[in-house]
Amino acid sequence: MLRYWETEFPQIKPEKGRSGHRLYKKKDLDTILLVKQLLYTEGYTIAGARKKLSGRGEQDLETVIEVTKKELREILELMK
User: Fold this and answer.
1) Paired strand residues for 69
2) How much is the mean pLDDT over the chain?
3) Nearest-angstrom CA–CA distance, 70 and 20
4) More confident residue, 80 or 61
5) What is the tens place of the pLDDT at every residue in 16-35?
6) How far is CA 47 from the centre of its chain?
7) 30: closest CA among 14, 48, 7, 46?
């Protein structure tokens, strides 16, 4: 799935190490989490998510990250 998303979302650009393995930076991981949220939680299509990502600002990204962290904490509490 990640390799497919790399082809669909130009914002995801992992570097490759000497052995050819992909090395994801924090920015890449944040974008991947945002794509996942847009596709699976908010119900966007690939094209819609791509359009949303191309028009977003840094504030939107940080907001989404904070919301995602909050949701993950809530899930963690439910699992305890």
Assistant:
1) none
2) 88
3) 35
4) 80
5) 999 999 999 998 999 999 99
6) 15
7) 14
Cβ-proximal residues to 17 (8 Å cutoff; 6+ apart), any chain: 23
DSSP 20: S
What type of residue is 70?
Answer: K
β-bridge pairing 22-23 and 15-16: antiparallel
Q: Nearest to residue 35, comparing CAs of 55, 49, 47, 21?
A: 49
Report the C-alpha dihedral over residues 25, 29, 30, 34, rounded to 10 degrees.
150
C-alpha to C-alpha distance for 20 and 58, rounded to whole angstroms: 30
Residue type, 17: G
Q: Count other C-beta atoms under 10 Å from residue 32's C-beta.
A: 19
